[in-house]
Amino acid sequence: MALSKQEIAQRIAKELQDKWYVNLGIGIPTLVANYIPEGIEVEFQSENGLLGMGPFPIEGTEDADLINAGKQTVTVLDGGSIFDSSTSFSMIRGKHVQLTVLGAMEVAQNGDIANWKIPGKMVKGMGGAMDLVASAENIIVAMMHTNKRGESKILKECSLPLTGVGCVTKVVTNLAVLEVKNNEFHLLERAPGVTVEEIKAATEGTLIVNGDIPEMDI
Fold it and tell me: Which of 65, 70, 139, 178 has its CA 20 to 30 A from that of 47?
């Protein structure tokens, strides 16, 4: 059975390590803050100038002035801080963030990512994504494996305007966990109930399958 957006975020949360600083992009990545594994401390950084971001607030307790980069209301953990964008991007460009989690419309087998523009549609701009992909050394993408027409978004080459080149290290979709290396997608895990054959059929890019592929532990 394909994963929900919440389950994709839950699986990505298992990649977190103690004392890491982590940037969460817009969309599915923001949900990762709700699933921090027990026994570790992680500092979530939002590019609009927030460090120590917590889970989404309980309905009725929201503070409209306290938002993440996607303009969603958030909470701040004890010891959290708020600062200007120049300080925030100094953290990003200075490589002080150990993990970046981004959404995407397309990912190519060489690690290219397209996540900011569909030609012909109005956009407000690329935002901070270009700085993130240019500076981060550990980028995990959270996305759906196919589009609404059932066409693969895991590709040999991206067709949409690129955000970054050769920067993605791992992709977690509603069907699988994929590692990007050697210009190929390597299948690491499959969603519960999803077969390797189904993943192959949904993947346009080169997919390497070695041995028995375990189901994700959600």
Answer: 178
pLDDT digits (tens, 9 = 90+) for 88-110: 999 999 999 999 999 999 999 99
Residue 214, in any domain of the structure: no
CA distance 9 to 146: 17
Do residues 64 and 70 touch, judged by C-beta distance below 8 A?
A: no
Residues 121-174 have pLDDT tens digits of 656 666 677 888 888 899 999 999 999 999 999 999 999 999 999 999 999 999
Which ranges of 67-189 does DSSP label H, i.e. alpha helix?
Answer: 85-93, 129-135
Total domains in the chain come to 1
**Host domain of residue 179:** 5-208
Strands 139-142 and 99-103 come out as: parallel
Q: If DSSP codes are grouped into helix, strand and coil, which group holds residue 16?
A: coil
CA nearest to 177, candidates 10, 38, 40: 10
Which amino acids are annotated catalytic?
47
